[in-house]
């Protein structure tokens, strides 16, 4: 009996909020405030440079997602370009490491914010409950996910826009600082160093791509949703950041673990603090919802091609969701929450995940170049403009950000060591599963999938 297929039910807005939902998260709000504290108004320049870099990367993901509209995303793209081994590495390195580190950190921030609103509430219990709630949403079906994501992400964006407008127009009731922030306190060299932090504000927009088999018109919607999402995030973040500068000093913004809450209190007093604290919870809810929608579909895509155990490709006959993969991702998140999420090493773990994420971005750029040359006549509903310039620049930018992942040399060495350990574990799994269990070649590219489901997905 054949397995049911995923359901094409997401339109432009569902795709858009999937990407934005992961990008605008609790840790990105913290990074945004810290970056404006370090760079002052000129962080907008660093942020714009990061926007340009991420747009180049988005071009590659858009081309790949419409050439190979598979739920496995980076795994589906890399297998025909570089082989099964690199495909497994791309998914596990870029996204399973993320699930085990960054997402628990997001949820802990959400739990701490909830505790601020409800004294005595356990942050860990709240985080686990939030995860299980959105697991249920994602198990029921992609339509339910899309509706929930529109509400959660839309509410969060509206709140941030509201604070930006109130702060910039001076309508929140707070008292602005007597003196404006210096235009460029870090100097132009400092602005250059802030581009990596700026890029973190946009990382994750590609989470639209694993939904390609459930998007009604992926060839048109995916690139539009990715680019629109990046521009919206930049504009909203910059408005909020400039508003924060009017009410909070640079040093406070740079050194606070919750600079966005300081800004909210400065703009609108206690009411503002409560509202943005609630929005922080929304940010984490949006993030975990996007994670539970996208990452299971990557596992589903790998399993469907024999690069993970077959159970990860099981689709629920009624709800048509990859239920085993959803539950597996839930188990990783919850396991991390109750073991390492409160550890003092969580920041280093997050930065290790960022290195691995950037490594998967490098793979995506290489995939575009290889597939263009190997399959020049293949149908590409979206073609990256100015090929191969965006890919070359994207690879260079990712390498640069990995090299400068942290300003402290000792911390940087620790992060690189952690990334090396993750790489060794993932490559070890890939070798054992592919070479010893499946008896498959590690680097030999697979044929470009031209099945009926792919052709239909690319054309509709």
UniProtKB/TrEMBL annotation:
Transmembrane segment boundaries: 12-36, 42-61, 81-100, 120-140, 152-174, 186-209, 221-247, 267-300, 321-340, 346-364, 385-403, 415-434
Membrane topology: Multi-pass membrane protein
Pfam families found in the cross-reference section: AA_permease_2
Domain of life: Bacteria
Localization of this protein: Cell membrane
Keywords: Cell membrane, Membrane, Transmembrane, Transmembrane helix
InterPro entries: AA/rel_permease1, APC_superfamily
Name of the molecule in the record: APC family permease
Species for this entry: Saccharopolyspora griseoalba
